[in-house]
Amino acid sequence: MSSKDRKKAPVYRKLQRLRSVINSTSVNRTSIIVDASRYIEELKEKVEMLNQEIGTSQMSTSQSPLPTQVNVETLEKGFLINVFLEKNCPGLLVSILETFEELGLDVLDARVSCEDNFQLEAMGGENQSNAEGMDAQMVKQAVMQAISKWSENI
Fold it and tell me: How far apart are CA 67 and CA 87, in angstroms?
């Protein structure tokens, strides 16, 4: 084998590998390279379309509020607060408990589940320093705001 043939052999193998990757039927060098450049442009367009789809789906999920149920009942000395969200929400419990503290509610009893969805059932009693008297609507509004703030930070 001549030195000229030895130099062409690696280039030929690389062109054949490129040809198989881009599924080209071309045989001459120039056509294979043109096919490769078209293939690269197609891939770029696909990536751009996927990025747009991802951006659209992220916007739609961030703009749509979480399906949330918040119920607050007035008890003799406090409130029964039920919160349900259809997905697991790491960190939400902390936000809600901080809201209770800001409202001056002591958690007397609570049950929480955070496995597949978020469920909280808490009994909150007004502590001695809270002389303003609040109603169930105020507590519900505060919990909804805590959920809203939490969802903005995720």
Answer: 9
Structure-token pair, residue 24 = 């080209």
pLDDT at position 131 is 44
Q: Is 66 exposed, middle or buried (0-12, 13-18, 19+ CB in 10 A)?
A: middle
User: Which DSSP letter does residue 52 get?
Assistant: H
Structure tokens belonging to residue 115: 């496995």
Structural domain boundaries enclosing 121: 68-152
pTM of the model: 0.55
Torsion of CA 51, 53, 54, 57, to 10 degrees: 160
CA pair distance 47, 64, nearest whole angstrom: 26
Residue with tokens 């009942």: 73
Low pLDDT (below 70) residues in the chain: 1, 56-66, 128-133, 154
Helix (H, G, I), strand (E, B) or coil at 15: helix
- Which tokens sit at 11? 């280039």
> Cβ of 19: how many Cβ atoms within 10 Å?
19
112/120 Cα distance (integer angstroms): 5
- Shared domain for 75 and 141, answered yes or no, is yes
Of 38, 63, 88, which marks where a domain is finished? Answer: 63
